Amino acid sequence: MTEPARPQTTVLIADDHPMIRQGLRAMLSCEDIEVVGEADTGMEAVERVRELRPDVVLMDMRMPDMDGLAATEIIHKEHPEIAILIVTIYDSTDYIQRALLAGASGYVLKGIPQSSMIDAIRLIRNGESLINRDMLRALLSDISTGDPSSQLTVRKLTPRERRVLELLAGGLSNKEIAQQMRYSVGTIKNVVAHVFDKLGVPDRTQAAILAAKAGMVSDAPEMTSEEPSLAERSNHG
Predict the structure, then answer these.
(1) What DSSP designation does 217 have?
(2) Which domains are assigned to the chain?
(3) What residues contact 225, with CB distance under 8 A and at least 6 apart?
(4) What is the pTM assigned to this prediction?
(5) Other CB atoms within 10 A of residue 64 CB
(6) Contacts 24+ apart (CB under 8 A), 98-101
(7) ∠ CA(42), CA(51), CA(205), 5° rounding?
(8) How far is the C-alpha of 148 from the C-alpha of 174, rounded, in Å?
(9) Is residue 136 helix, strand or coil?
(10) 165-189: pLDDT as tens digits
């Protein structure tokens, strides 16, 4: 039986090195991913996103004119539905957390295998998180709560959706949320999609950050098992 075709994902590559852009474009030559544009500065990335509206942006952090952090913040503010994947040589927790707070969906290290890069794009396109639970908890613990805008946004959610958001912010997978709430995985997947739509976020990481700003994370359960992020798995082979 033939597997159903994957939905097409459009990608913009932002990096100031032509060889890196060429390498990423070649790496992403698969049937469900289309590179629709490139940018070699942060400002050009912002302008190209406004023009092309890609599903995913691959963002370098160090670029002339405007760095990737500033570009990420602008793109996320203007187009919160677009997933931004940081592609960097800097494996610094502080640097990565700053990027996530600016609106990035995740990060990968330059030089990872082709299969890992493609998997990362597919995961964030589907709203999944590339951040492990330890890093997520550390990130959320540093966020100031009580943001009025975030509190107003989460009021759009039903009680069931709020509970799913709380569990999601605790790092639980759809399967774990389904087990805790005694629903099917399919039902939870649909609820998560509704939560993303109502909050105007592209993925679990940004949903969790918004929940933390609204003061909801304290109700999320502690998790005992830790899974490495995709970037960490790739970095260690």
Answers:
(1) G
(2) 9-126 (3.40.50.2300), 137-219 (1.10.10.10)
(3) none
(4) 0.79
(5) 11
(6) 98/69, 99/61, 99/68, 99/69, 99/72, 100/131, 100/139, 100/205, 100/209, 101/139, 101/143, 101/209
(7) 60
(8) 28
(9) helix
(10) 999 998 898 999 999 999 999 999 9
